[in-house]
Amino acid sequence: MSLRSDTPLIDTRNRPLRSLRVSVTDRCNLRCQYCMPEEDYVWIPRRDLLSFEEMDNLVALLVELGIERLRLTGGEPLLRRDLAALVKMFAARSGLRDLSLTTNGILLADCAQKLADAGLHRITVSLDTLQPERFKSLTRRDDLGAVLAGIQAARATGLAGLKINTVVMRGFNDDELVELIEFGKSVEAEVRFIEYMDVGGATGWSPQQVVSRGEILELLGRHYGAIEPAQREDRAPAERFVLPDSTRFGIVSSTTAPFCSSCDRSRLTADGLWYLCLYADQGIDLTSPLRNGASNEAISLVIASAWQRRVDRGAEDRLAIPNRSVLVSVSTLRKQHHLEMHTRGG
Ligand code: SAM
Ligand code: SF4
Ligand code: SF4
Question: How many A from CA of 309 to the centre of ligand 1?
Fold first, then answer.
C-alpha cells in the first residue's frame, strides 16, 4: 500500500515535506573560509556512512511521504566513489520530479557526463571568484582552473538549469558581481548570489561581512540599470530577478530576509541523521531503526510524526537576535561535528 497521498504531509506551520538534501560525504577537497576555515576536523567514521542501498531505502520512504525534489550535496559530493550509481538509483524513483547536485566543481570535468547519463537533472557549481589568487586565499587550494573546466563539462552535457552559486562577502568578492554575471552569461548558467550565513562552520562570520540582498541589487543596478523581479515559480529559496538585457539571476537572502515561512526542506546526513532545519541542534536518527531491522512502516511513522511536529524557523530566529555573532564556537563544533554545514549538507 502506498503511503503517498494527495494531501501533503505538513508541519505545524503548514509547510509541506517536499525537498531533501542528501549529504553523501562530509569530506571536502576545498577549505572555504566561510565553511571549513579550521586546520582540522572530526569526520564521520567510515562504518557509520550509509551505503547507497541504505540511502536509497530511506529516500524511497521519504519520497512516499512527499519528497519531490532531491539535491545531492556534502561536503564535496563528487568525493563519494561511484556517485553515478547512486544517481541512477534515485533517478529510478518515479516520485522525484527534480534531481540535482551542488558541487565545488573540482572533480566535475571527469564525471559530469557520467552523472547526466545516470539520470541527474540539474547541476549547480559553487564559484565565488574568477581571480586565481582570490580563489586560493578563499579555499586554500590553487584549483580555479579545475572548477572552470568542470563548469564547461557541465555545460557540455546539455542538461538544462546550470547554476552558479556565489557567496558574497564584503571586502572579498563584492567587487566581482558584474564579472560573475558576465561569466554566467558566457557559459549559459544562472548566477545565484547567496548572503553570507552564520551557519555552523562559519567561525569567522560577522554581520559586517554580509552583503545584503538590497546592496547586491544596488551594486548590479548601478552597472546594468533597472532590475525587475522575475515571476516566482516555486518555493525555491532564490528570489529571481531580470536585467534589462533579459539575463536572469537569483539572490538567496537567507541572512537578512529569510524564507522559513515557506521552507519545505530537510537534510539527510551521510550517516543517516535527518535534520528538519539547517540550524537545528539535533537530527533524527534514521540509521538505527534501519540497521536494527525496523519495518519500512515503522521508519515512515518516525519520519511522518517528526515532520508533523516540526516548528523550526532557524534563520528567522537568528534574525531576531540583537548583536548577532558566530553561531557555534570551534570547541563545540569539535565535540558536535554534526553542527558543521559540511556535515549536515549545505
Ligand atoms: N561542496 C559543495 C559546494 O561547495 O558546492 C556542496 C556543499 S556546500 C556546503 C553547499 C553550498 O553551501 C555552497 O554553495 C556553499 O557556497 C554554501 N555555503 C557554505 N557555507 C556557507 C555560508 N557560511 N554562507 C552561505 N553559503 C554557504
Ligand atoms: Fe567549500 Fe563546499 Fe567544501 Fe564547504 S563543502 S568547504 S562550501 S567546497
Ligand atoms: Fe528552512 Fe531552517 Fe533554512 Fe529557515 S533556517 S529556511 S526553516 S532550513
Answer: 28
